Amino acid sequence: MNTTMSLDRAPVTAAPATGRIADDKAMLRAAAELTRDLVQPRPRLYWADLIASAVVGYGALVMAIMSTSTALSVVAGIVAMLGLYRGLSFIHEVSHMKHALLPGFRKGWDALVGVPMLTPSFMYEGVHNLHHAKTRYGTAEDPEYLPLALMKPWTLPLFIVISALAPIALIFRYAVLSPLSLLSPRFRAMVVERYSALAINPRFRRRMPESDFARQWNRIEMAASLWAITLVTLAATGVLPLRAFLIILGVASGVAVVNQVRTLVAHLWENEGEPMSVTAQYLDTVNVPPPALLPALWAPVGLRYHALHHLLPGLPYHSLGEAHRRISAALDGASPYHKASYPGLPGLVLKIGQSTMMPRNRSPI
Predict the structure, then answer these.
(1) Is 6 a domain residue?
(2) Which domain holds residue 102?
(3) What is the spatial distance between Cα 303 and Cα 306, in angstroms, rounded to a whole number?
(4) Domains: count for the chain
(5) Cβ atoms within 10 Å, residue 105
(6) Which of 121, 250, 255, 270 is geometrically suited to a Cys-Cys bond with 16, CB 3.0 to 4.6 A?
(7) Average pLDDT per run of 10 along the chain, which is 365 residues long?
(8) How far apart are alpha carbons 340 and 329 in whole angstroms?
Protein backbone atom coordinates (compact mmCIF):
# COMPACT_ATOMS: atom_id res chain seq x y z
CA MET A 1 0.00 0.00 0.00
CA ASN A 2 1.03 3.57 -0.51
CA THR A 3 2.37 5.04 2.71
CA THR A 4 1.02 8.37 3.90
CA MET A 5 3.66 9.18 6.51
CA SER A 6 5.76 12.33 6.12
CA LEU A 7 9.53 12.00 6.47
CA ASP A 8 11.48 15.16 7.19
CA ARG A 9 14.82 16.00 5.63
CA ALA A 10 17.79 17.15 7.59
CA PRO A 11 19.45 20.53 6.97
CA VAL A 12 22.30 19.97 4.43
CA THR A 13 25.58 21.58 3.29
CA ALA A 14 26.02 20.11 -0.18
CA ALA A 15 23.74 18.29 -2.54
CA PRO A 16 24.97 15.10 -4.19
CA ALA A 17 25.34 15.84 -7.88
CA THR A 18 23.81 12.52 -8.89
CA GLY A 19 21.74 14.11 -11.64
CA ARG A 20 24.85 15.57 -13.30
CA ILE A 21 26.65 12.27 -13.96
CA ALA A 22 26.95 11.67 -17.70
CA ASP A 23 26.21 8.27 -19.16
CA ASP A 24 29.19 5.95 -19.48
CA LYS A 25 28.66 4.71 -23.03
CA ALA A 26 31.26 1.93 -22.77
CA MET A 27 29.48 0.44 -19.78
CA LEU A 28 26.05 0.68 -21.37
CA ARG A 29 27.30 -0.82 -24.63
CA ALA A 30 29.06 -3.70 -22.87
CA ALA A 31 26.01 -4.46 -20.75
CA ALA A 32 23.80 -4.67 -23.83
CA GLU A 33 26.17 -6.58 -26.09
CA LEU A 34 27.37 -9.17 -23.58
CA THR A 35 23.91 -10.25 -22.47
CA ARG A 36 21.94 -10.60 -25.69
CA ASP A 37 21.77 -14.38 -25.30
CA LEU A 38 20.49 -14.17 -21.71
CA VAL A 39 17.11 -12.53 -22.27
CA GLN A 40 14.97 -15.64 -22.62
CA PRO A 41 13.18 -16.71 -19.41
CA ARG A 42 13.22 -20.39 -18.45
CA PRO A 43 9.59 -21.28 -17.66
CA ARG A 44 10.36 -24.55 -15.89
CA LEU A 45 12.76 -22.79 -13.53
CA TYR A 46 10.24 -20.03 -12.81
CA TRP A 47 7.50 -22.50 -11.98
CA ALA A 48 9.73 -24.85 -9.98
CA ASP A 49 11.18 -21.99 -7.94
CA LEU A 50 7.79 -20.45 -7.24
CA ILE A 51 6.12 -23.74 -6.29
CA ALA A 52 9.05 -24.80 -4.11
CA SER A 53 9.00 -21.44 -2.31
CA ALA A 54 5.26 -21.76 -1.68
CA VAL A 55 5.53 -25.38 -0.48
CA VAL A 56 8.36 -24.51 1.93
CA GLY A 57 6.64 -21.34 3.11
CA TYR A 58 3.18 -22.76 3.73
CA GLY A 59 4.51 -26.08 4.99
CA ALA A 60 6.68 -24.35 7.57
CA LEU A 61 3.78 -22.05 8.50
CA VAL A 62 1.57 -25.07 9.23
CA MET A 63 4.38 -26.57 11.31
CA ALA A 64 4.75 -23.32 13.26
CA ILE A 65 1.01 -23.33 14.01
CA MET A 66 0.74 -27.03 14.86
CA SER A 67 3.88 -27.40 16.95
CA THR A 68 3.58 -27.44 20.74
CA SER A 69 7.25 -26.47 21.11
CA THR A 70 7.88 -22.74 21.24
CA ALA A 71 11.42 -23.15 19.90
CA LEU A 72 10.24 -25.29 16.98
CA SER A 73 7.44 -22.82 16.22
CA VAL A 74 9.92 -19.95 16.10
CA VAL A 75 12.30 -21.83 13.80
CA ALA A 76 9.45 -22.95 11.56
CA GLY A 77 8.11 -19.39 11.52
CA ILE A 78 11.46 -18.07 10.31
CA VAL A 79 11.61 -20.71 7.58
CA ALA A 80 8.02 -19.86 6.60
CA MET A 81 8.89 -16.18 6.45
CA LEU A 82 11.91 -16.80 4.19
CA GLY A 83 10.00 -19.16 1.90
CA LEU A 84 7.02 -16.84 1.51
CA TYR A 85 9.31 -13.84 1.11
CA ARG A 86 11.05 -15.55 -1.79
CA GLY A 87 7.71 -16.46 -3.33
CA LEU A 88 6.42 -12.92 -2.86
CA SER A 89 9.55 -11.49 -4.49
CA PHE A 90 8.41 -12.95 -7.81
CA ILE A 91 6.01 -10.00 -8.04
CA HIS A 92 9.03 -8.10 -9.31
CA GLU A 93 9.45 -10.59 -12.15
CA VAL A 94 5.72 -10.55 -12.88
CA SER A 95 5.84 -6.77 -13.31
CA HIS A 96 8.63 -7.03 -15.90
CA MET A 97 7.98 -10.23 -17.83
CA LYS A 98 6.45 -10.63 -21.25
CA HIS A 99 3.52 -12.78 -20.25
CA ALA A 100 3.36 -14.55 -23.61
CA LEU A 101 6.75 -16.12 -22.78
CA LEU A 102 5.47 -17.41 -19.43
CA PRO A 103 1.79 -18.17 -20.04
CA GLY A 104 -0.29 -18.48 -16.91
CA PHE A 105 2.52 -17.47 -14.56
CA ARG A 106 0.82 -14.29 -13.34
CA LYS A 107 -2.36 -16.23 -12.54
CA GLY A 108 -0.35 -18.96 -10.83
CA TRP A 109 1.62 -16.44 -8.80
CA ASP A 110 -1.55 -14.61 -7.71
CA ALA A 111 -3.19 -17.89 -6.71
CA LEU A 112 -0.20 -19.25 -4.80
CA VAL A 113 1.18 -16.09 -3.21
CA GLY A 114 -0.32 -12.78 -4.31
CA VAL A 115 -3.89 -13.27 -3.10
CA PRO A 116 -3.05 -15.33 0.04
CA MET A 117 -0.50 -12.68 1.07
CA LEU A 118 -2.90 -9.88 0.09
CA THR A 119 -0.35 -8.34 -2.27
CA PRO A 120 -1.87 -9.18 -5.68
CA SER A 121 -0.01 -8.48 -8.90
CA PHE A 122 -1.96 -5.31 -9.78
CA MET A 123 -0.40 -3.55 -6.78
CA TYR A 124 2.95 -3.59 -8.60
CA GLU A 125 2.08 -3.80 -12.29
CA GLY A 126 1.64 -0.32 -13.67
CA VAL A 127 3.60 1.06 -10.71
CA HIS A 128 7.05 -0.48 -10.85
CA ASN A 129 7.54 0.39 -14.52
CA LEU A 130 7.34 4.08 -13.55
CA HIS A 131 10.35 3.56 -11.27
CA HIS A 132 12.35 2.47 -14.33
CA ALA A 133 11.32 5.40 -16.53
CA LYS A 134 14.45 7.44 -17.23
CA THR A 135 12.67 10.76 -16.73
CA ARG A 136 10.92 9.67 -13.51
CA TYR A 137 13.55 7.76 -11.53
CA GLY A 138 14.48 9.60 -8.34
CA THR A 139 12.00 12.39 -8.97
CA ALA A 140 8.74 13.27 -7.22
CA GLU A 141 6.95 11.19 -9.87
CA ASP A 142 8.78 8.00 -8.91
CA PRO A 143 6.49 5.85 -6.73
CA GLU A 144 9.43 3.87 -5.33
CA TYR A 145 11.84 6.63 -4.40
CA LEU A 146 12.39 8.86 -1.40
CA PRO A 147 15.66 10.70 -0.70
CA LEU A 148 16.11 8.75 2.54
CA ALA A 149 19.82 9.59 2.78
CA LEU A 150 18.90 13.28 2.93
CA MET A 151 16.31 12.90 5.68
CA LYS A 152 16.64 13.00 9.43
CA PRO A 153 18.13 9.95 11.23
CA TRP A 154 14.89 9.04 13.01
CA THR A 155 13.16 8.43 9.67
CA LEU A 156 15.16 5.25 9.01
CA PRO A 157 13.96 3.21 12.01
CA LEU A 158 10.45 4.55 11.41
CA PHE A 159 10.71 3.43 7.78
CA ILE A 160 11.43 -0.13 9.00
CA VAL A 161 9.12 -0.30 12.03
CA ILE A 162 6.04 0.93 10.19
CA SER A 163 6.36 -1.97 7.72
CA ALA A 164 5.55 -4.44 10.52
CA LEU A 165 1.97 -3.14 10.42
CA ALA A 166 1.59 -3.96 6.72
CA PRO A 167 -0.39 -7.22 7.25
CA ILE A 168 -3.01 -5.42 9.35
CA ALA A 169 -3.20 -2.59 6.82
CA LEU A 170 -3.63 -5.06 3.96
CA ILE A 171 -6.38 -6.96 5.77
CA PHE A 172 -8.20 -3.67 6.34
CA ARG A 173 -7.61 -2.66 2.72
CA TYR A 174 -9.23 -5.79 1.29
CA ALA A 175 -11.72 -6.79 3.98
CA VAL A 176 -13.12 -3.29 4.55
CA LEU A 177 -12.08 -0.78 1.87
CA SER A 178 -12.69 -3.05 -1.12
CA PRO A 179 -16.36 -3.74 -0.29
CA LEU A 180 -17.02 -0.16 0.79
CA SER A 181 -15.47 1.22 -2.39
CA LEU A 182 -18.23 -0.46 -4.40
CA LEU A 183 -20.75 1.93 -2.85
CA SER A 184 -19.20 5.16 -4.08
CA PRO A 185 -17.28 5.93 -7.30
CA ARG A 186 -15.52 8.79 -5.53
CA PHE A 187 -14.42 6.59 -2.65
CA ARG A 188 -13.42 3.90 -5.14
CA ALA A 189 -11.17 6.38 -6.92
CA MET A 190 -9.50 7.29 -3.62
CA VAL A 191 -8.89 3.61 -2.75
CA VAL A 192 -7.33 2.99 -6.16
CA GLU A 193 -5.24 6.16 -6.13
CA ARG A 194 -3.89 5.94 -2.59
CA TYR A 195 -4.17 2.38 -1.30
CA SER A 196 -3.53 0.12 -4.25
CA ALA A 197 0.20 0.40 -4.90
CA LEU A 198 3.36 -1.01 -3.39
CA ALA A 199 4.94 2.42 -3.22
CA ILE A 200 6.95 4.38 -0.68
CA ASN A 201 6.45 7.87 -2.13
CA PRO A 202 3.50 9.34 -0.16
CA ARG A 203 2.76 11.78 -2.99
CA PHE A 204 2.21 9.06 -5.57
CA ARG A 205 -1.31 8.66 -6.93
CA ARG A 206 -2.02 5.91 -9.41
CA ARG A 207 -4.51 6.15 -12.23
CA MET A 208 -7.74 4.19 -12.47
CA PRO A 209 -7.22 0.97 -14.45
CA GLU A 210 -8.77 0.69 -17.89
CA SER A 211 -10.08 -1.99 -20.30
CA ASP A 212 -8.47 -5.44 -19.93
CA PHE A 213 -6.28 -4.40 -17.01
CA ALA A 214 -9.35 -3.09 -15.17
CA ARG A 215 -11.16 -6.39 -15.65
CA GLN A 216 -8.11 -8.34 -14.51
CA TRP A 217 -7.72 -6.02 -11.51
CA ASN A 218 -11.35 -6.44 -10.48
CA ARG A 219 -11.22 -10.23 -10.62
CA ILE A 220 -8.07 -10.43 -8.56
CA GLU A 221 -9.26 -7.82 -6.07
CA MET A 222 -12.51 -9.72 -5.56
CA ALA A 223 -10.52 -12.86 -4.74
CA ALA A 224 -8.28 -10.94 -2.32
CA SER A 225 -11.28 -9.30 -0.67
CA LEU A 226 -13.10 -12.61 -0.19
CA TRP A 227 -9.95 -14.15 1.26
CA ALA A 228 -9.42 -11.24 3.69
CA ILE A 229 -13.05 -11.36 4.82
CA THR A 230 -12.83 -15.13 5.27
CA LEU A 231 -9.63 -14.84 7.31
CA VAL A 232 -11.12 -12.21 9.61
CA THR A 233 -14.35 -14.21 9.99
CA LEU A 234 -12.49 -17.42 10.84
CA ALA A 235 -10.42 -15.60 13.45
CA ALA A 236 -13.40 -13.71 14.92
CA THR A 237 -15.52 -16.85 15.29
CA GLY A 238 -12.71 -18.92 16.79
CA VAL A 239 -12.60 -21.39 13.90
CA LEU A 240 -9.06 -20.16 13.39
CA PRO A 241 -7.50 -20.12 16.89
CA LEU A 242 -6.08 -16.82 18.07
CA ARG A 243 -2.59 -18.33 18.38
CA ALA A 244 -2.69 -19.49 14.75
CA PHE A 245 -3.94 -16.09 13.58
CA LEU A 246 -1.17 -14.29 15.48
CA ILE A 247 1.47 -16.64 14.03
CA ILE A 248 0.17 -15.90 10.53
CA LEU A 249 0.34 -12.16 11.23
CA GLY A 250 3.81 -12.54 12.73
CA VAL A 251 5.16 -14.39 9.71
CA ALA A 252 3.57 -11.87 7.34
CA SER A 253 5.05 -9.00 9.39
CA GLY A 254 8.45 -10.68 9.16
CA VAL A 255 8.13 -10.82 5.39
CA ALA A 256 7.22 -7.12 5.27
CA VAL A 257 10.08 -6.08 7.56
CA VAL A 258 12.74 -8.06 5.69
CA ASN A 259 11.48 -6.62 2.41
CA GLN A 260 11.59 -3.10 3.88
CA VAL A 261 15.17 -3.62 5.05
CA ARG A 262 16.05 -4.78 1.55
CA THR A 263 14.30 -1.71 0.14
CA LEU A 264 16.30 0.50 2.50
CA VAL A 265 19.59 -0.73 1.02
CA ALA A 266 18.42 -1.23 -2.58
CA HIS A 267 19.45 2.36 -3.43
CA LEU A 268 21.70 5.02 -1.95
CA TRP A 269 18.68 7.38 -1.96
CA GLU A 270 20.84 10.45 -2.58
CA ASN A 271 18.95 12.14 -5.40
CA GLU A 272 17.20 15.40 -4.58
CA GLY A 273 14.56 15.05 -7.29
CA GLU A 274 16.25 16.04 -10.53
CA PRO A 275 16.21 13.68 -13.56
CA MET A 276 19.22 11.35 -13.74
CA SER A 277 21.17 9.68 -16.51
CA VAL A 278 21.08 5.88 -16.71
CA THR A 279 24.60 5.74 -15.28
CA ALA A 280 23.61 8.02 -12.40
CA GLN A 281 20.62 5.79 -11.69
CA TYR A 282 22.90 2.76 -11.75
CA LEU A 283 25.34 4.35 -9.27
CA ASP A 284 22.44 5.24 -6.96
CA THR A 285 21.48 1.55 -6.92
CA VAL A 286 23.12 -1.46 -5.28
CA ASN A 287 24.55 -4.85 -6.25
CA VAL A 288 25.52 -7.31 -3.52
CA PRO A 289 27.20 -10.06 -5.57
CA PRO A 290 29.00 -13.21 -4.37
CA PRO A 291 30.99 -14.18 -2.36
CA ALA A 292 28.42 -12.81 0.11
CA LEU A 293 25.92 -15.60 0.92
CA LEU A 294 23.22 -13.95 3.02
CA PRO A 295 21.90 -11.75 0.18
CA ALA A 296 20.44 -14.93 -1.31
CA LEU A 297 18.01 -14.83 1.64
CA TRP A 298 17.29 -11.12 2.09
CA ALA A 299 17.55 -10.17 -1.61
CA PRO A 300 16.23 -13.27 -3.42
CA VAL A 301 15.03 -13.79 -7.00
CA GLY A 302 17.79 -11.65 -8.50
CA LEU A 303 17.28 -8.68 -6.19
CA ARG A 304 20.90 -8.87 -5.05
CA TYR A 305 21.74 -7.53 -8.55
CA HIS A 306 19.45 -4.53 -8.25
CA ALA A 307 21.85 -2.06 -9.90
CA LEU A 308 22.42 -4.42 -12.83
CA HIS A 309 18.66 -4.82 -13.10
CA HIS A 310 18.37 -1.06 -13.58
CA LEU A 311 20.82 -1.31 -16.48
CA LEU A 312 19.04 -4.32 -18.00
CA PRO A 313 15.48 -4.47 -16.64
CA GLY A 314 14.45 -7.04 -19.24
CA LEU A 315 16.83 -9.77 -18.06
CA PRO A 316 15.12 -12.63 -16.18
CA TYR A 317 16.29 -13.11 -12.60
CA HIS A 318 18.14 -16.35 -13.33
CA SER A 319 20.37 -14.59 -15.90
CA LEU A 320 21.60 -11.75 -13.69
CA GLY A 321 24.43 -13.68 -12.04
CA GLU A 322 25.96 -14.70 -15.38
CA ALA A 323 25.42 -11.20 -16.77
CA HIS A 324 27.27 -9.72 -13.79
CA ARG A 325 30.20 -12.10 -14.25
CA ARG A 326 30.52 -11.26 -17.95
CA ILE A 327 30.28 -7.50 -17.55
CA SER A 328 32.63 -7.44 -14.54
CA ALA A 329 35.26 -9.38 -16.48
CA ALA A 330 34.95 -7.23 -19.60
CA LEU A 331 35.21 -3.79 -17.95
CA ASP A 332 38.39 -2.54 -16.30
CA GLY A 333 38.59 -1.42 -12.71
CA ALA A 334 38.02 2.23 -13.61
CA SER A 335 34.55 1.54 -15.01
CA PRO A 336 31.65 2.86 -12.97
CA TYR A 337 30.13 -0.62 -13.24
CA HIS A 338 32.25 -1.82 -10.33
CA LYS A 339 31.29 1.12 -8.10
CA ALA A 340 27.75 -0.16 -7.49
CA SER A 341 28.87 -3.42 -5.84
CA TYR A 342 28.92 -3.67 -2.04
CA PRO A 343 30.01 -6.50 0.30
CA GLY A 344 26.86 -6.86 2.40
CA LEU A 345 23.93 -5.54 4.38
CA PRO A 346 25.64 -4.10 7.52
CA GLY A 347 27.89 -1.76 5.54
CA LEU A 348 24.98 -0.50 3.46
CA VAL A 349 22.84 0.20 6.53
CA LEU A 350 25.78 2.02 8.13
CA LYS A 351 26.36 4.05 4.95
CA ILE A 352 22.81 5.35 4.72
CA GLY A 353 22.71 5.92 8.48
CA GLN A 354 25.84 8.05 8.30
CA SER A 355 24.39 9.98 5.34
CA THR A 356 21.37 11.04 7.41
CA MET A 357 23.67 12.41 10.10
CA MET A 358 25.64 14.70 7.79
CA PRO A 359 24.90 18.45 8.10
CA ARG A 360 22.93 19.73 5.09
CA ASN A 361 21.95 23.14 3.69
CA ARG A 362 18.48 22.42 2.30
CA SER A 363 15.40 23.37 4.22
CA PRO A 364 13.31 20.56 5.72
CA ILE A 365 10.08 19.73 3.86
Answers:
(1) no
(2) 18-356
(3) 5
(4) 1
(5) 20
(6) 270
(7) 42 46 92 96 98 98 96 98 98 95 97 98 94 90 92 91 96 98 96 96 93 95 98 97 97 98 95 90 95 94 97 97 97 95 94 83 38
(8) 15
